[in-house]
Design brief:
The protein has about 375 residues and is of the alpha+beta class. It contains 13 helices and nine strands. Strands 1, 2, 3, 4 and 5 form a five-stranded antiparallel beta sheet that branches. Strands 6-7-8-9 form a four-stranded antiparallel beta sheet, covered by helices on one side. Strand 8 and strand 9 form a beta hairpin. The protein is globular.
């Protein structure tokens, strides 16, 4: 999920829970975008993003650890500085009470009442919100770093979901529809609570769709006598009631659109195993250091070799990141066709993939990561 959406989601929940505490609200929102600092790790290494992104800063241990210095900086220094600058107060000894405005940053007495642990909790929950809403996508998050590199994902939302943005706009729409007088007659933060409940409901809807999609795929595998080694139902763009079903066996990979709203399956595409030994170029591509790193990342790996004259081009990719029009609902297909008029090759392009070029002598000429 993109960083801005993370911040907006956390801000919504913070305003729903503690609308009167702007200091904690701002702190939680800032912390919710902090984990994406890991995109800076290994700059210049194309595969560093696969290996490091959603790693330690997105882990449970990382949230507990990173929340401490952020909370300490905020509690012991930054709110006091901002408060004095805003009100023009001179420096006062620690422990002297100052009046806090209802809608402004908390005063020193209020901070003392809530204590440092309120700031620490806000920091951890802000980072934790980012972690959870990354786990709901299909990219994968290393929750147990640094103890394990295993990636966890719930496969509930597509990584960019416009319906989430629509829900996030609900509090703003309510405020503008009712006006200031209408808001005064209600409890502070009620419109944000409505937005938060809608967002929780959307997570629940996605979980129900996911469970039903997996059941359809398991029933298909049993009905066709397919011995599956791995089954996944991947969310697709603009289509919350559809899933990209993937069934892997030792010999084949099946791409099966699942239309949960109609309890139906779409046209099936079949691919050979990515680790077949009958193609030496594909085998050598997987054996490269970069190929081994990519194999660790890919949940549903595939491989294709393209004969380009004297050269051979092998692309290692993950079926999670390859879409088909058949995966989408009517809205998704309509939007996809608009994009295809501008970028006709959009659906065929390999994304989050590894490209290995062999020269005429069969030597590796170049290895590149395809975004």
């Amino acid at each position: 999920m993109d960083t801005i959406t993370h911040g907006l989601i956390t801000r919504l929940f913070a305003k729903a829970l503690v609308p009167e505490r702007r200091d904690l609200l701002v702190l939680a929102t800032l912390c919710s975008v902090l984990p994406d600092v890991d995109i800076l790790y290994g700059a210049g290494d194309p595969l560093a993003g696969l290996q490091n992104h959603r790693g330690f800063t997105h882990s449970l241990f990382g949230a507990a650890l990173l929340g401490f210095p952020v909370a300490a900086l905020t509690y012991f220094r930054l709110p006091h500085v901002f408060l004095e600058r805003a009100r023009g107060y001179s420096s006062r000894p620690r422990g002297v009470e100052s009046r806090a405005t209802p809608n402004g940053p908390a005063g020193l007495s209020e901070r003392a009442t809530y204590g440092f642990w309120a700031f620490y909790l806000a920091s951890v929950l802000g980072i934790g919100s980012h972690i959870f809403f990354d786990v709901v996508t299909s990219y994968g998050t290393m929750l147990l770093q640094p103890f394990s590199d295993r990636r966890f994902s719930l496969d509930l939302w597509f990584i960019i979901d416009p319906y989430v943005w629509l829900i996030l706009s609900v509090p703003w729409l309510l405020r503008h529809a009712l006006g200031r007088e209408g808001l005064r007659r209600r409890r502070m933060g009620w419109e944000d609570r409505i937005g938060a409940l809608l967002l929780v409901g959307y997570v629940g809807l996605a979980a129900g769709v996911q469970v039903m999609a997996l059941r359809h795929l398991e029933m298909w595998a049993r009905g066709h006598g397919v011995s599956a080694t791995r089954i996944g139902a991947i969310p697709v763009a603009f289509s919350p009631l559809h899933r990209k079903g993937i069934v892997m066996t030792s010999d084949y990979v099946y791409d099966i659109p699942v239309y949960v709203s109609r309890a139906a399956l779409g046209p099936i595409a079949t691919y050979p195993s990515p680790f077949r030994m009958d193609d030496p170029f594909i085998a050598r591509a997987w054996a490269t250091p970069q190929g081994k790193r990519y194999q660790w990342f890919a949940r549903f790996p595939l491989a294709v070799r393209l004969d380009e004259g004297e050269k051979q081009r092998v692309i290692l990719y993950d079926l999670r990141f390859q879409g088909r029009l058949e995966d989408l609902d009517a809205v998704g297909r309509a939007i996809a066709r608009l994009f295809l008029t501008r970028w006709p090759q959009l659906m065929e392009q390999k994304r989050q993939a590894l490209e290995v070029i062999f020269d005429a002598g069969g030597r590796i000429e170049r290895v590149a990561f395809l975004h």
